[in-house]
What does this fold into?
Amino acid sequence: MITEIVEKCVNLANVMTAEQAFYQCCIVCAGDGPADANVRTGQSGRVLMCTFPGLGRKVHSNGKIAIVSLVKPCVELESIIRPREKASN
It folds into this structure.
């Protein structure tokens, strides 16, 4: 029983390690343009924050590595922050 559990754990760890060689996570930095990110309609400006990372798959072709986007990162842009209105005295 214990041997089976340990073997399954080792196999799972090996598969997870191998998958790291195929996939790459990406995050859009604050201040960058939202070029390849999912943005809600009506937002504008630069990236304020990345709310969900993107995921890409590494593809080997002709001796080079290219990243194919599987899931685009989600971002919020600067336009979601509205300046406070000044109180009149």
Q: What stands out?
A: The first helix runs from residue 2 to 20. The chain is about 20% helix and 35% strand.
